[in-house]
Recover the amino acids of this structure.
C-alpha cells in the first residue's frame, strides 16, 4: 500500500514539475510574440499604450478578442496580421 502511494505521489510531483517548467519556458515566447505585434502596429502610427492590450491578448491565444480590440483602431487587414503575429500559431 505504501509503495503504491509513494509511486502516485512521485508521479504527481513529477508532472507538476514538468508543467511549471513548461510555463517558465514558454512565457518569454508569448512576450516576444506580443512585441512583434506591437512593432508591426507601430509601423502604422499606433501608440504602444493603445495597442499593447490587444497584442497581449493575441499572445495568450485569443485571436478573435485581439481582433475585437483592434477593429476600431486599424484597418481589418492590419489587425489580422497583427493578431497573427501575436499568436504565431494562427
Amino acid at each position: 500500500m505504501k509503495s503504491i502511494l509513494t509511486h502516485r505521489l512521485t508521479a504527481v510531483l513529477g508532472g507538476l514539475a514538468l508543467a511549471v517548467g513548461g510555463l517558465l519556458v514558454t512565457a518569454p515566447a508569448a512576450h516576444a510574440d506580443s512585441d512583434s505585434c506591437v512593432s508591426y502596429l507601430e509601423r502604422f502610427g499606433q501608440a504602444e499604450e493603445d495597442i499593447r492590450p490587444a497584442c497581449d491578448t493575441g499572445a495568450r491565444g485569443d485571436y478573435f478578442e485581439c481582433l475585437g480590440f483592434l477593429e476600431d483602431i486599424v484597418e481589418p487587414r492590419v489587425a489580422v496580421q497583427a493578431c497573427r503575429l501575436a499568436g504565431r500559431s494562427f
